[in-house]
Amino acid sequence: MKRYRVFSILSATVLMTATAYAQITTASGQQPAGAPSAWWTDTALMTRLGLSEVQKARIENIFQTHRQNLTTSKDALEKEEAQLSKLLAADPIDRPSVFAEINKVIQARSDMERVNATMTLEMREQLTPAQWTQLQTQPTGQRGGRGGLGRGAINSAAAALTYAADKSITLEGRVAALNLAEPRSAIVIEVAGNDGKTTRWTGEMAGFGQLTQQGWTRSSLTVGEKVIIEGSPSRDPSENAVLIRTVRKVPEQR
Known about the structure:
By secondary structure, the protein is α+β, with helices and mostly antiparallel strands. It has a domain at 37-161: Four Helix Bundle (Hemerythrin (Met), subunit A) (Up-down Bundle), CATH 1.20.120. Helix content is 44%, strand content 24%. It has 7 helices and 7 strands. The protein has a 5-stranded mixed barrel. Helix 3 packs antiparallel against helix 4 (95-124), helix 3 (53-89) packs across helix 6 and helix 4 (95-124) crosses helix 6 (151-162). The radius of gyration is 19 Å and the shape is globular. The chain starts with a helix and ends in a 5-residue tail after the last strand. The model is unreliable at 1-36 and 140-154 (pLDDT under 50).
């Protein structure tokens, strides 16, 4: 029973990392789509919780304190996942090497979850019991993943490191590719500049499983369709990347 209570506390703490929801508007209505984000950057949620300026500052400071470790563990996980993808694409497949790499991926993911759990636990300590209770009553998409020390927590921490949640960018272009996959999905669009040159931008969204539960299919968007996407730009100005909040189809002129 004691071990169960400890696990429950850790699971609930990690749920504090949030998933903000985007949506795609079509001629027949709206299809919601998830995009990983971080709850402490959600101004509306913090207002509903009644966080003081001191609490907000302390929570942001906690994130900045753990930021480097999060970055390092995120990079390590992505490196091992990339290596595993290469091994799985080989022909013939080297089973011993694949299983060895799977263990490395599991270890890297565990390391990142541990760093993230420590950070979110410290954030939890900045909340009052009433604020904590209110946070747990928020819809799943506004307070974290589906539970446990899982990929939802990884995605939200990674998103906070990669994208500037306090900034917004709007892009209009044509769909070059739609990749609905796990753990992240992506839309690639080609944006025409004033000089006539085309630039490719990649928009990140939630994983295929979450998107399909919200109405997405592989035919929700097709290559060549004109869309407008809005979201948070990459913290690195040299990267043409955005964490998508909304996607809207643009009717073609006939």
